[in-house]
Write a structure and sequence with these properties.
Blueprint: H1 2-28, E1 45-51, E2 62-72, E3 82-91, E4 107-117, E5 121-126, E6 143-150, E7 155-170, E8 172-180, E9 189-193, E10 203-206, E11 210-211, E12 215-222, E13 229-236, E14 239-248, E15 255-261, E16 268-273, E17 282-287, E18 289-290, E19 312-316, E20 332-337, E21 341-345, E22 354-359, E23 362-364, E24 367-369, E25 374-382, E26 391-392, E27 396-397, E28 403-407, E29 416-428, E30 441-445
Parallel strand pairs: 11-18
Antiparallel strand pairs: 1-2, 1-8, 2-3, 3-6, 4-5, 4-7, 7-8, 7-9, 10-12, 12-15, 13-14, 13-16, 16-17, 19-21, 20-29, 21-29, 22-28, 22-30, 23-24, 25-27, 25-29, 26-28
Amino acid sequence: MAFTRTRAVTRRRRWTAVLGATALAVAAGGALAAPANAVGSAQSVDFTTRCIPPAIAGIPPIEGTTTAVVSVDNKAPKVGDTVKVTYSITKPAASNPVDLALPADILTPSGKVVLGGAQTGTVTVTGPRKNPPVPGKGAFPGFSMTGSFTVTQAGAITLAPGDYNIHTSYLMELDTPCTVLNPPAPVSETVQAGDQSVPNERTLELGATSGAPGVRVTVTGARFTPLTEVTVVGRAGAAESADRMTVTTDSEGGFTARLKVNDRATTGIVAYEGTGWNAEKGAGPIAYQVVDDTPTPPNSQRLTATVRAGELSMTQAGDAVALSAVDFGQGGAATGALQTVTVKDFRGGPAGWSVTGKVTDFTGPGGAIGADRLSWTPACVAKEGSPSACTAGSAGPVGTGGATLASTENGTVTGGEFTLDAGLSLDVPAFTAPGGYTGVLTLTLS
């Protein structure tokens, strides 16, 4: 019995030594070093922290200076956008005080980032259970945590480091909370949030799609700004023609105009608010053809052939994409390819088109992987002979707000057949619970 008791006391003392060393490491501010490129343009700041070691460690509260940086993936979001936040402890203030080495992957950090300025509150951030072995009396590395918030207010939003906690999974499950002694900590990052984009719901209809020079065409507009002056004008490709008039919308934002079309160059009609064309405050172009009514010479016959305008349509090769698997504990990019999309623009008018996409969160056994973690690299090829050139959208996040896959510009005559593709990449956090995660990517042609 005496031998058994001695072994138990010795084991408890070893546990206490290990736990005490871990607690001091946390007070110094550390676990995993943040990569250099995580800082970006954010400012590194120092602040005093007070950490409470687990009671079993037998160590009093410890104060030390923590150096940290808060960075974001989007410094100019709009209201409604989701912003990813990274909170990194970059320079601990102490090192391992004992000769006992600490093993790898025993520390899991979590914390808060404090929002100020135009939007107040906190952002919950977490980090993976991952740290390199720490030798006895060796320096402690740092650690990084990530989270996200939704922008609800326009203006300058500040981000500052907040309290954090280290969960220790070594011999026992213990927590060491660390608080900012003189809150708030200095501001490390600032984002400038803009107002939410307002969808343009203005519409335009023509009473006829063609007519002889001098014929008036009925132009009907809806969902414009109520009681506002609107310019109704002909378009010759991307330029305005000589056919023009102004009207004032009614109390519901509608109007009816009788535009006299004389200019034989007119190929379409638009309407807009303000002093010049603005896609956000206008509608159209709607295709219109000026018919040549020159009298037929004596003993002649006028021959007319008609080319019927078709439709703007979109099809896709399939409705499911299986992204590559990633390993639990490693995470990283789950990659794949968008099912090929084909756009056929057989309208024959002056209007271009665009295809946009937006995605939901990916839900699965471990909850949700944010929609902002899906990125794509678009590509677009026009079939030989197509009047329009196709422009691929920018590579980057898709998210719930949406992004452009491809588009064509307005022109004198537009149209063609186009093949749209995109490489897909979902950034899966390292310790996402195993299982399948599914999101829905919706494409819209307009």
